[in-house]
Amino acid sequence: MKMIIFLNLFYFLAISINAQEITKEAVDELNQLAHQSMRNPPQMKEKVDSAIHFAKELGYKEGLGNALKYKGIYYYFTSAFDSSAYHHHLSLNIYQELKDSLSIGKAYLNLATTYSAAALYDSTTINAVLALKYFEVLKDYPGIGRAVNLLGIVNFHQKDFDEALKYFKQYLRNAQTTSDSSEIASGYNNIASVLIEDKQYDSAIYYFEEAIRLKEKLGNLNNLGQSYESLGSLYSKQGDSKLALSNYQKAYILYNNIGDRRFMSECEYNIGVEFKKLGKLDSAEKHLIKAITIADEIGALQILHDSKRSYADLLFLKGNGLKAYEILQASKNLSDSILNLEKIETIADIETKYETEKKEQQIAVQTAEIAKKTAENERNVLLIIALMAILVLLITVFLLFRNRAKRKQQLLIKEKDLKVKEAQIEATLSSQESERKRFAEDLHDGFGQLISALRLNMNNFNKDAEDKLKFKAFEHSEKILDDMHSEIRSIAFNLMPVTLIQEGILAAVKEFSRRINNSEQVKIEVTSFELNSRFSEVFEVAIYRIIQEWVNNVLKYADASKITIQLDQYETELVLIIEDNGRGFDKNQLFSGKGNGWRNIQTRANLIKSQIEIDTDAGRIGTSFILTAPIFAFLITEKMTNTADVH
């Protein structure tokens, strides 16, 4: 108790110290400590309040703006959205006085984030667009990504899923460009949410699992909770309430640990809905009441509306129609305040005005640049004439040295290219010889034996043989002919699958996997995403042979029981991922080895200008092979025959 009194006394003495003894560096240090305490709101508030007090004492505007920003973030984490928006507006005013463009953009972004959490989507759009303007001028790519993500969230809540998906994909590309794992995980999560609405559940599960993997690695508990909650929503749409409840409860535990009451109320609502589906009305009522209580306390209008509407439905089921009607009317009033038609039109108008203004600004900038360049050219004419003689001499000397260096460089490049081509030709010839040898062995071992057997059967058709023996020989000969037909089909498939030419790469890979799966020694799964195009024969054959070569190596050396082949098509590239659960290996041995298989893969990869990554290590279980190939030069059509997703 004495220690507590002493600490409090020390605190009050500290804030009464003469401002001359407090430095700007001390305010900055308090703001930094507040930033580090974001996941501990009580500690954060203590640091922020001290920073605000000392910054006012010093008249330190920049420090005060930052402290007010963190106070707004504190209120956001405690779900006090009105207070959060108020403090972000105060910090914005200070940044505008200081003409700090980056901080102004971030202040607008913080406001948009706060309004989004409060389901005020017109205000979200206004502030997100304003933030986007500043970030684009500053080329601040993380800021651009977050602003675009918020516009995607607004469109998602408006049920405009195509527009939302466009924004979320832009957000993901931006995050991948900046290699921001946390933002990449959020991008996966948001895209998966749209795919759920489009009923592409398998693709959505893939993106959710990728998001969860990244968030667990980063230790991002809040965003990890959102992924579990979204995954629960997916299972709910599929009618699997057991898995839905499991994921909602995981999310609730994470939100509760960090004190995020807004998402706690969401989870309570979702859990209540699932219990209602299962007919457990008492459990459903308990969780829906909790959701309403929390949402009402923190001002989360969207959650409050949905929870009251679901609670009203439950009361109708339990026979309490009067109370149900009252709650239903309250939810309708909330619905009107969240997002009406006029607000939707306002949001669309804001986005249109932003795009128009952006184009006008680009035209104005280009016009100004042209005028500036014209003036500079006129000023430089006299100087150019005066220096012409010197420049001619310098250019002559430079060209002599440059030509000499260029010839030397070209010679080195030609020698290198020649060596590469010789290696490729050697690998190709070796591969062709191996194919011929295997083809000859197949013909000799397969057809040779079958023809010999057929010849022996034919001897039983002589005139002296009994009719019964002739009939038996005829039946045996017919079976041998069937075996010969199967052997011909197998050899033809190995040389060039007809499916690859007629139906494309995906169908051919699936047929290849079926043949291997029939052996029951290994299980191969084939998945694809957005692969709806046909490519040139060179491209498809190269991809197919690379898959065939790599899978054959896995079967030979990795002792794997499962192989996954994934083909994903994006706007500009095709991504091939082959994963197995077999033994890993030392990549350096592969790169430095002289085996024809790896050289064949490299040759075909170079042919289609693709890049290869391999993730493995000796003593580790599992290997990943990733190939990224540009598709514009090889694209033929956007339509392709649809086949089953997984074998």
Could you give the topology of this structure?
Elements: H1 2-15, H2 24-36, H3 41-58, H4 61-77, H5 81-98, H6 101-117, H7 121-138, H8 141-157, H9 161-177, H10 181-197, H11 201-218, H12 221-237, H13 241-258, H14 261-277, H15 281-298, H16 301-317, H17 321-338, H18 341-458, H19 467-495, H20 498-503, H21 505-517, E1 523-529, E2 534-535, H22 537-557, E3 562-569, E4 573-583, H23 587-592, H24 596-607, E5 611-615, E6 621-630, E7 635-637
Parallel strand pairs: 1-3
Antiparallel strand pairs: 2-7, 3-4, 4-6, 5-6
Helix pairs in contact: 2-3, 2-4, 3-4, 4-5, 4-6, 5-6, 6-7, 6-8, 7-8, 7-18, 8-9, 8-10, 9-10, 10-11, 10-12, 11-12, 12-13, 12-14, 13-14, 14-15, 14-16, 15-16, 16-17, 18-19, 18-24, 21-22, 22-24
How confident is the prediction overall: mean pLDDT? 79
Given as residue ranges, the uncertain stretches (5+ residues, pLDDT < 50) are 1-20, 339-343, 639-647
Q: Strand sequence of the main sheet, in spatial order?
A: 1-3-4-6-5
Kindly, what is the distance between the CA atoms of the first and last residues, rounded to a whole number of angstroms? 69 Å
Number of distinct helices: 24
Helix content: over 70%
Class based on secondary structure composition and strand pairing: alpha+beta
Radius of gyration, in angstroms, nearest whole number: 34 Å
The CATH architecture of the domain at 501-637 is 2-Layer Sandwich
**Class of the domain at 501-637, according to the CATH hierarchy?**
Alpha Beta
Topology-level CATH name of the domain at 501-637: Heat Shock Protein 90
The total count of strands amounts to: 7
The biggest beta sheet is recorded as: 5 strands, mixed
Mind telling me the CATH superfamily name of the domain at 501-637?
A: Histidine kinase-like ATPase, C-terminal domain
> What best-fitting shape do the alpha-carbon axes yield?
flat
